[in-house]
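Problem 12. The chain below contains 545 residues. Write out its predicted structure in token notation.
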Amino acid sequence: MTTKELRQLVNHVEGQRERRMPIWRELSHYMLPSRGQFPGEDRENLRNAVRFNNVAARALRRSAAGLTEAMTPAALPWFRHDFLDRDQREVAFARDYADAVDERLGAILAKGRFYEAIHTFNLDLLCFGCALLYAERSDKTLMRYVCPPVGSYAVAKDDEGDLAFVSHRMHFTAKSMVSKFGMDRVSERVIKLLELEPYKDVEVVHVVMQRPGADGRKMDALSKPWASYWYEAEGNPQDFLSVSGYDDMPFFFTTWTEGRGLYGVGPGDEALTDQKGVENWELYKTIGLEKTIDPPVMVPGMLKGRVSTNPGARNTVSGSGQGQQIAPLYQIQFGPALQLVQQEVQNVSSRIEDSLMASVFASISMDQRPAQMSATEFMARKREAAQQTGPAISMYEPQILDKVLSRTFNVAQVLGFMPDPPEGLGGNFILSAEYLGPLSQMLRQTGSDSTRQLITDVMNIAQIQPEVLDKLDLDQAVDELARGIAAPGSIIRSDDQVAEMRQQRAEQQAQMQEQQMQLEAERNQIAAANVKTEGTVAGAMMGKE
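Solution.
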């Protein structure tokens, strides 16, 4: 692909988001001024967003923090890998291998600032209805994770709905461009800036797209299935800064709800109108308070320029009559009106909290039960709250978390950071991620719950009919319980190890029984030798007189 063709493709894909851009600008202005990057803006300054009541921004922070803690809590294990093939789970040391993989993935995510990026990702997703995450190799931390701001990227999907194209506009200083791409790759404009203004920003476009006809048998970067192009937005239209490739897509994109466009819609769209309304009501309330404290008044013409409205001030008025008095310009009962306005502000603020699902996500990650609430009611409410997020989270896991873990694993394995699998697994195995965050656990009935309930019920029946225990495979039940509660794989022995232990135990028991029988026989012989049988019936039977 030539630079001209790629620029035309980027312009076309960016054109598909133009209908969404004005709404993103409004959402950013009213609700999240720290996010979003739009053409023509000064990137160095925060948007001049004067708000009388930032209830939406506060609700977004609560909601995003709750979503992060509910899905990917940094202080707790939120994922666990296991083998897709049930037989491979029983291979000796297979579970230890999966635990080691999880431990190293967790270390890479923490070092690469994944948790900071995913929190920003959740803010964008809730506010703008879509979000993009980027996972790239790093010389310092092995991987680094970044959430590009809305407005700086454009995406396209293939026929199956998977991400197929991403263009991302970024800014580099002239000095950093030369360091990253080399003096021979940058334009003459950048070379001049390097001499005059080495820290001046230059816009650069990074494009990742499927490479048609990629040859998987070749190992060079230009043959990888995902092409990577870098070029200057205002540089030489004939040259690329860099052309390379990826084994898998480094960008991950999802929407809150599939809207009429590619970029979807989110809770922010629903809350935007209410946030505008709160701004108006707060403005009216402020004006009412000012008029209550310092109302407009009528002043007699004779007192022009000689009236003091300071507290305790005395203004001498000659004569009498209404026309000679200082009086309110008009009579309005501001007190009741302010109460009504305040009530309306509270009502609208409550709607914004509900729209942005702040209370929902906050309650999901809450572990402590209120003293006046029963445990059953507490869990019922948490499950009900979790169900409200189901449709969005159903895309969150496969579109974001699955792919982030998969790419991180692949890069770490290529770099030799992953442990070697046990010999019993061979070369073909598939690790599948199961999510352990509070929200993921609530959205599905875990196998441990159903297994535990089945065992309890069967044990009750066994008191009447013991033979019913033959229907249970208790060894497999232990495996299912361990998986359901995410117990470390190292504490559960494989079927082969258990069989070997039981065989050794059976051999020991058989040996002990044989020794016991021999000992009993010897005792009988000794006892028989010491008994006198002459003149007895036993002696006659034994042929002794």
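Discussion. Residues 369 and 377 are 10 Å apart (CA to CA). Students who got a different answer should revisit the alignment rule from Section 12.3.
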